[in-house]
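Curious: explain these tokens?
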Amino acid sequence: MQTHQPVYTTFCENKQKGKKAFAVLIDPDNIDLPHLNRLLALSEEAQVDYLLIGGSLMITNHLDVYCQHIKQHSHIPLILFPGSPTQLSRHVDALLYLSLISGRNAELLIGQHVLSAAAVKQSGVEVISTGYMVIDGGVPTTVSYISNAAPIPADKDDIAMCTAMAGEMLGKKIIYMDAGSGARHPISERMLRRVADNISLPLIAGGGIRDPETAYRMARAGADVIVVGNAIEKDQELIKEISSAIHSLPATTMR
């Protein structure tokens, strides 16, 4: 049972206030319980705003068990970031219902949603309609391979802007720009600024972020929520540094 206000409400309120947020991405395939417990403790200490859980390719059956464990041991809102219709759990606070608006694969625009709709509805989980945009991070990623869709080129700011604008006009509630796990470089500040200046939706960005400075610059450029996963899997102590950098931005920061 949800014990705090809807996650989407917090996205909107934070954006209205100009408050930047930090989300830690947990891939159940890449973490065991001892490391998960350590990550949760560090996240609580660092005042992480959200926990995302999911993966592009799920090869274990840990998802539901880990979701229950996280809800029992953390007060941070837990958001499901699914890589397929099979990645569903009732033990989360919200679900990012992803439509891959950057690609032309109809299955990821609507097809897989049809397959999962009944189960999602029955779960009672808060559903957040998400315009998902994959941006070229300089190296092929699991998400681009699984989606069978080409990412938006890293230097095509106008394509990214128009894609995000289309997503907003189609009724998506948030835009999520992702360079993918293991990306060689993150989404450029220039592209983030171009998108952020032309939409009114909360903007999430992730992929290729390995240090606090990059996270800070991306938040300053217009991303409302910064997501970091792969770098933290390698060094959990980064949680404190990245959280501090993102939260150091004053709420009145102008891009």
Residues 106-123 form the longest helix (18 residues).
